[in-house]
Amino acid sequence: MFLAVDLALAASLTALEAATLIAFLFAESLKKWAVHGGHVAGAKVRFYLVLTLGPTGAAAAGYGFRQAGLSAAWISQALVALALVLLLTLELGTDCHAWATRRLNRRHLVRKRRRVRGLSGE
User: Could you count the other beta carbons within 10 Å of the beta carbon of residue 60?
Assistant: First the structure.
């Protein structure tokens, strides 16, 4: 009986977290669609907030499940937290790469313009 409750709790919480994340991503994609693919203010911040609070909540719930002796629920929450942290890491890595590339390209362009101005005698 106790194992069945543990497994049911683990499965239902994992399904609930997945459904919540899917609903959030759907709502964000609707906002993007509404502006015809343009920029949506605060989209990155909301995404980072969800991917930061998600693992924090999962870890807190997992700790409570561990204290209560619900090992399957604890392990499932740990895996959900790990998946969300990996997704956050991938997203931040992509954004940092894009920022560094823009910065390098901007520096290169500024140096090129200075070189051209110096040659033209302005």
Answer: 12
What is the mean pLDDT of each successive set of 10 residues along the chain, which is 122 residues long? 84 90 93 89 88 89 90 91 91 91 91 80 56
CA 57/CA 67 separation, integer angstroms: 15
Q: Which range marks the domain in which residue 22 is found?
A: 2-120
Token pair 């997992």 is found at 62
Structural domain count of the chain = 1
What's residue 75's pLDDT?
Answer: 92
What pLDDT, on a 0 to 100 scale, did the predictor assign at position 86? 92
Token pair for 33: 């669609």
